[in-house]
Every structure is written in structure tokens, then in C-alpha cells.
Amino acid sequence: MEFLNTKNAPSAIGPYSQAVKVNGLLYTSGQIALTPEGKMISNDIKKQTRQVLSNLKAILEDNESSIDNVVKVNIFLENMDDFGIVNVLYSEFFGDHKPVRSTVAVQTLPKNALVEMDLIATMSDYH
């Protein structure tokens, strides 16, 4: 097992790693709408979703993987009314690549984020 990090996504805000590599798979921790410098994006679901996806992309690309290697995504929404907006941005982000996905509503997310996502991807040499 190898613990992975990139400076192009925010550092973990607790006792965990940005990602872990094991058996050819990359597992990310949940990403909220923090910039790589640790600043929270404004309370706007579109801006937050884009930042979360950007963070995930940076973790993937800086650790021998890519969006095209994503197998599974978990989405956590503070408000299920935001599902449609998040779905459109998610679809634009992944394009024709369609990983499996779960979306659940939660009561509260860290730093009062509106959206959090984590994912599982294959490493580039395993796809």
C-alpha cells in the first residue's frame, strides 16, 4: 500500500491521506470545495462541484491515473435539490466515460460544504 498526495489539491484536513494506491487501484478520500491552498469556495453548488471535480482530477493525474480510469464515484449532497445541477456538471466532466456512481443526501458535510465526492480508479498501467 502506498499513500499518495499532490500539491495540486488541498491537503487532508484530518488524519488521513488524499489517496491510497493498492493492487493497481487508486482510492481517493472525499474531496470538498477547497482550493489547493485550503480556501473554501463560495457557497454556490456549481462552483463547489467544479472545484471538487478539479481536486479529484489533480489527484488522479499527479498519481499515474486519469478521469478515463475512474471506476466508481460516490457523491454526497447537502441538499438533494442540487442533484440536477451536479449531474449536469458531472456529465460534462466525464463526457462519454460513465463510471458507476452512488449519490446520497447527507445532513452536514465538513466545513459546511454543499458537495463531497470520492472515487476509485485504476492506475494507468492497469487499465
Quickly list its features.
127 residues; alpha+beta; 60s Ribosomal Protein L30, Chain: A; 2 helices
Describe the structure.
With 127 residues, this protein is an alpha+beta fold. It has a single domain (2-126), classed as 2-Layer Sandwich (60s Ribosomal Protein L30, Chain: A), CATH 3.30.1330. The protein contains two helices and six strands; from the N terminus they run E-E-E-H-E-H-E-E. The chain has a six-stranded mixed β-sheet with strand order 1-2-3-6-4-5, covered by helices on one side. Strand 2 (19-22) and strand 3 (25-28) form a beta hairpin. Helix 1 packs parallel to helix 2. It is globular and about 40 Å long. The model has no long low-confidence stretch (mean pLDDT 95).
Written as H for each helix and E for each strand, in order along the chain, the element string is EEEHEHEE
- What is the total domain count? 1
CATH topology call = 60s Ribosomal Protein L30, Chain: A
- Spatial ordering of strands, largest sheet: 1-2-3-6-4-5
